[in-house]
Write a sequence for this structure.
């Protein structure tokens, strides 16, 4: 799973819209003009640099900007619905407390189930910012960890490492990828100690920490079954389905247009065929990261192809051909 | 050359303001280049009377492309060349027609390129919430966006119509008093203040 960790370039780093993306979304009807102005304002304040520093939520990211960011993600309709639910729930809870009605404590620990490249980390990061804007989390940053970050080598080591990570995540979200690996080693493994420490932290820091456990669907299921106490502590479970071919193509288009490239029709066709083929084989289907890697390779092929030409037109500088895509798909 | 961009909701009187204001500034005729969203541009030279007939309408979305005019802006004794840009009116919601959406996207582009923003609001329709030209969230967002420009001013238009004084009060409440000049583009009222405002910033 080498490519599962720390992607080289984020497909859509949070908040990263160029003004051209915004115009495009207005044109295609994905964004109303008013919201576009909010984005453009944020962009101009940032003076051409990224709107959001990776992970850290920023003050000028208003709720509207964060929601627009979520809306801009391809697919993920269930996630978007859930966000509206959570948003409504929080609003009502706040109003209830104004009326001095009994409030249930807001428990927002979550489990994300899905294959690699289906948007789990991206959504987690957006949730962080969203909860900060809704006043649920003071900071809203995302700390992304895996087994090796918290499981130690000797007795007592694990609890210490785990607490360090928890302290780092206080005020934000602690995101544990492939969470089931914590239970991997059986009874004697230190992973158990990590889980216990995490559960304790969930109680101790109820109001300042949200824990998200993520991983493959099937492994997560058996992990939860084996640790029955865990399931009840995570009231929100979200499935991240594999992307459909049409959605993957949309992602590819969006990614290219952000970089001011576009695909020739035969390139789109080639990519579609490739995605369909891999879909049938069942090997890494529906993986947005895979598409991103293909597009990045295609952009490099495109550069190599044109580098030696004496003159290149503007059109050629933008156009990814069928051959570029084909080579990129082959790896 | 400074770019002065006229922005606002649909049917608030942007094009009429452009025509009458440039005439007021002493332009002999209306030399406009019309830029379609696709990039096609054509230039025309019209008499003002003719331009008003052709380019100004009673219904929303009369202007569906960016209209630019280079103009010698009178400054004391001298003149300064400026570009004044009229844009397609914006709407609160996503519009159903692709062509208009493309034109609105271009208005946003123009907004970003602007040095000076003249933000028109229909003062007579402020309280008609359901009509497309009524002041709304979009105007607030536009104001927030444009305040960082060299020049930003709200032109409360249609002050010749009934209800506009009350509307003006509401606009001041919503956007803050210091940015607002009441005008009537039709009657060329308030143009002296607009000219003074622009002259100080080109």
């Amino acid at each position: 799973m080498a490519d599962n960790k720390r992607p080289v370039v984020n497909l859509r780093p949070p908040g990263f819209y160029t003004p051209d993306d915004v115009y495009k979304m207005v044109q295609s009807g994905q964004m109303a003009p008013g919201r576009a102005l909010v984005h453009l304002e944020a962009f101009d304040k940032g003076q051409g640099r990224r709107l959001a520093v990776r992970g850290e939520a920023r003050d000028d990211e208003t709720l509207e900007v964060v929601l627009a960011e979520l809306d801009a993600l391809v697919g993920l309709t269930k996630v978007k619905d859930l966000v509206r639910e959570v948003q409504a729930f929080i609003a009502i809870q706040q109003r209830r407390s104004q009326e001095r009605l009994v409030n249930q404590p807001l428990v927002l620990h979550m489990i994300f189930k899905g294959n690699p490249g289906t948007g789990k980390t991206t959504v987690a990061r957006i949730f962080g910012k969203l909860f900060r804007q809704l006043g649920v989390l003071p900071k809203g940053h995302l700390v992304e960890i895996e087994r090796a970050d918290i499981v130690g080598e000797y007795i007592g080591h694990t609890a210490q490492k785990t607490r360090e990570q928890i302290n780092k995540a206080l005020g934000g979200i602690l995101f544990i990828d492939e969470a089931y690996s914590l239970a991997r080693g059986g009874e004697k493994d230190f992973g158990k100690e990590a889980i216990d420490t995490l559960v304790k932290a969930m109680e101790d820091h109820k109001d300042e920490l949200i824990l998200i456990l993520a991983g493959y669907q099937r492994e997560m299921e058996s992990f939860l079954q084996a640790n029955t106490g865990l399931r009840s502590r995570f009231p929100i479970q979200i499935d991240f389905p594999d992307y459909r071919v049409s959605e993957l193509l949309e992602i590819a288009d969006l990614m290219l247009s952000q970089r001011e490239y576009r695909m020739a029709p035969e390139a789109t066709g080639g990519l579609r065929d490739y995605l369909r083929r891999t879909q049938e084989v069942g090997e890494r289907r529906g993986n947005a990261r895979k598409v991103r890697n293909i597009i990045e390779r295609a952009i490099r092929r495109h550069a190599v192809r044109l580098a030696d030409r004496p003159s290149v037109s503007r059109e050629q500088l933008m156009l990814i051909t069928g051959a570029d895509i084909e080579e990129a798909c082959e790896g | 050359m400074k770019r002065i961009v006229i922005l606002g909701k649909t049917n608030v009187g942007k094009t009429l303001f452009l025509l009458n204001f440039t005439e007021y500034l002493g332009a002999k005729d209306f030399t406009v280049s019309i830029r379609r969203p696709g990039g096609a541009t054509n230039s025309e030279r019209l008499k003002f009377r003719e331009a008003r007939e052709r380019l100004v309408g009673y219904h929303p979305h009369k202007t569906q492309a960016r209209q630019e005019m280079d103009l010698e802006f009178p400054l004391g004794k001298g003149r300064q060349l400026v570009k004044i840009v009229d844009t397609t009116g914006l709407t609160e919601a996503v519009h159903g027609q692709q062509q208009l959406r493309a034109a609105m996207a271009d208005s946003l582009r123009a907004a970003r390129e602007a040095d000076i923003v003249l933000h028109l609001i229909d003062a007579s329709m402020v309280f008609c919430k359901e009509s497309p030209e009524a002041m709304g969230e979009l105007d607030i967002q536009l104001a927030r966006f444009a305040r960082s420009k060299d020049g930003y001013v709200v032109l409360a238009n249609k002050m010749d119509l009934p209800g506009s004084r009350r509307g003006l009060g509401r606009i001041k409440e919503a956007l803050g008093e210091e940015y607002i000049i009441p005008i009537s583009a039709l009657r060329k009222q308030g143009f002296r203040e607009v000219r003074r405002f622009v002259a100080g910033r080109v």
Summary: The interface with chain A takes residues 37, 90-95, 98, 101-102, 104-109, 111-112, 137-138, 141-142, 144-145, 148 of chain B (CB under 8 Å). The longest helix of chain B spans residues 98-113. Chain B has a mean pLDDT of 90.
